[in-house]
Write a structure and sequence with these properties.
Length: 619
Amino acid sequence: MPPLTNRSALMFLLLVDAACSSSTVSARSTGDAPAPFGVDATSEPREQTADEQIQHVLNRLAFGPRPGDVATVRGLGVDRWIALQLASDRGNDAETDRLAASYEMLNRPTRDLVQSFEQGRAAIRRLQNSGVQQGADSNAQKSRADILRNNPALREIQRQNQRMLGGLQSVRLARAVVSDRQLDEVMTDFWENHFTIFAGKGLDRVFLPAYDRDVIRPNALGSFRTLLGAVAKSPAMLFYLDQWQSVADSLHPTLGSARKQPASARAFRAGAPAARKGLNENYARELLELHTLGVDGGYTQQDVVEVARALTGWTMNPRANAEFVFRPDIHDSGPKVVLGHRLPAGRGIEDGEDVLDILARDPHTARFIAHKLAVRFLSDSPPEAIVERAARTFTRTGGDIREVVRTIVTSPEFFSRSAYRSKVKSPFELVASALRAVGAQADTSVRSAQMVAFLGAPIFGHQAPNGWPETGDAWMNSGAILNRINFGLGLAAGRFPGASVAAWSEAEQLKSATREQQVDAVVNAFLGGRASPDTRQILLRGENPLAVKFATLAMKDSASSDVGPESLVPQRPLVSGAPARMDGRPRFGVAGQIGQQVQLNGLPQMVGLAIGAPEFQHR
């Protein structure tokens, strides 16, 4: 069978689009009446059937079903299961918490991580400078490699720094796979993409463990204003968008002479840059455009400047305690006008707090966040009516994220026929859902996280502040489809720790079943009980020309297996294809290994083909 080509991949892309249409036509043609499940008598009729509703909530409020989840939701009822996921007091997920605690390095204080990171970097610089002075090769990259090769202690520090990022990516995926608090994981993924941080920017990789643990997770279903404030004061965001270096310009007064500087401010100067760089608008601009109001949010360039002025003094000392500190001596204490709101002169941190209050209450923010949540949970083009209702909920509740999500996921639009299987899974969603489908154990290595990177979206690897796309058009192209099919077969071939078709709860009893019976079981377990005629025939024959052999396209440099966690972060944003190293060279790791040809037969072959099928690629 010939390897996969660009032409055949494009043909598959057409099948992907056709799959949703055919499933809709099939449901209508069979005469399935709307059959709400677990709905009280006052609820509006739902267009999705009872079984579709179960699949729908497990694919939207969770990262897909694990074995037994469908039966659990059926027993509880869809509405009760949703209510339990939304409940703030639904109990602990002790097993997942123990899993997270096993990543010892990620639970260390940030100041310790900074110290280790800076220790390694400073030692390398000293040895590089020493080598140059002695006439050694002045090429920085080569001399750095030589230094690490000849210094075991320094090499171990460097490995620990690299493992920290790999561990953070690993635990993010592992939580998504095994946690019972699935909506928490979905919302954590949503907000860490909305308030994105690029791990490849210097110290940000050491700020990210606390960002995930202390900033995003506790607030993912809480108050938007609280979340916004926590992000604004997080070292990860302060460093990523250069807010920590923003100071009042020479045209405006500061509070330096009016207030006694706290010890933290005096200590900051020891580690601060030698020269002040003046007002920096980076964070102010993204705060307005990407975090709150949206690009059409009614603000002007002057508003950007005024917000930046209000936030001067919001900084940190990255080389000491690595925590937020307000510095009066660099804060612009002049009067300001932000979106028509006057901020009096002579104030300090209150300026920034008032700005966050103004933005969190603005109707543009309510609509922007409501629309983005509707895109995540409902469809790439959500109906205007549900966006408006969700925005009203945001305003009425003062930005209660839980209630906004509840408005969306209990709406008639959410359970509409057009919403069912209308979303294309992102790389993170695809890998998590496939691992969940086979009942995989948590992978505490970096191998499964590497596959998310290989599929085009490294965790914490988006360089620009707009985050990875939430719409399917970004993920469906020939290169992406090639890699997705290969991933399905690689998973079925046992290439990922803790994931095995043999461990699937139904595998043993299906060994002696006929091919048709196996296909029925795979369709039921992996494709929600419904597959297009084309998909079913592919599973019956096992002769999918797009997936029988692993594609060699985009895998020509797959020989190297010496890949560290730094390979999971691209130098520039990738939407499809293979990730790049920090130096831009393609590296594949486990992704390259699954690029090798593999022969699958029987049940593993069917499972691999099912994961690569259009029905599984959608949620």
